[in-house]
Amino acid sequence: MHTAIRAEMQAAFQTVYDSNWFVMGKHVESFEKKYAHFNQVAHCIGVSNGLDALHLALNALGVGEGDEVIVPSNTYIATLLAVSYVGATPVLVEPNINTYNINPSNIEKAITTKTKVIMPVHLYGQACEMDAIMLIAEKYGLYVVEDNAQAHGAAFQNKLTGSFGDVNGTSFYPGKNLGALGDAGAVTTNDDTLAQKIRILRNYGSEIKYHNEVIGYNHRLDEMQAAFLSVKLSYLNEWTKQRQQIAQSYTETLKNIGDLILPVTHPDATHVYHLYVIRTQHRDALQHHLTNHGIGTMIHYPIPPHKQNAYTSLGYQKGDFRIAEEIADTCLSLPIWPGMCIEDVKQIVSSIKNFFVIINKKF
Ligand SMILES: *Cc1c(COP(=O)(O)O)cnc(C)c1O
Question: Which atom of ligand 1 approaches the CA of 184 most closely?
């Protein structure tokens, strides 16, 4: 996909290079407008990366020490780190074993008088059950901050992820569905006041140069990445369709093989397949087999947050989040990218079938 847009990307580079203006300028402004339009929100604030986007979102809401933030037990560590950055405590909630997204029926049990925010993560590219989550948030007077790093363009009941929450964060890390050529991210919100607050916070707490209103950060997006992102954003819908076609092809051809569990999409949700994640009790052996046949796979993620050394202070034990542990022990992400050809899919599927023929002989 980088070959197809090479000329446009090089032109973007040249334009920024010749402008001699590299941080926070017209390319950032223009990308922000385009992404806000794409995400159907009033405001997009371009920032340095996805983690900083989530950090700014929580910071702008005034979340801090003594507050609790509900996050899924099977998320990427960045979701928790953002909570820690503002001094609040992440409270883990188990996902639905079919969709891998936070299970709304587990959320209420985790709410205490300290809870301030629910942070749903649209994991692997599938939209969370936002209707139920928004109802719970309303009932208990909680904020919602979506972690939309993996799901640009996904929707629940026809409303886009990144447009439900009070303020939301996304990532344009190179490997995401919309990726820069380096680190980048964005905050999205429909709230004018929060948007203004975040614009100030990302730039040293300053609106007018050398006038500092609050203790802010350097969480800015640079012109080069913004220009690259603008080029790539115009291809995103097409790339998403290609991801969905590849996923469909996997799902049709991997049915009824061994103990394989294929991705399940909630009937009201769309899935943009940032990752195509299968599960099997023979995960490690399957991964080994595929590696030996030149097929690269990944595990998202091998260690759930409650078992990470960084979070021993939360006091969780092994066995506390069995669904997250089960997913971590059995999940495997198959290759998927826009432009991937059907022949590649066929070869991968045939290699997986072979693996299960071999292990069936063993048992
Ligand atoms: C990638 C990712 C992030 C962090 O984004 P960065 O740009 O790498 O900081 C946060 N949450 C989730 C779910 C992610 O996948």
Answer: 7
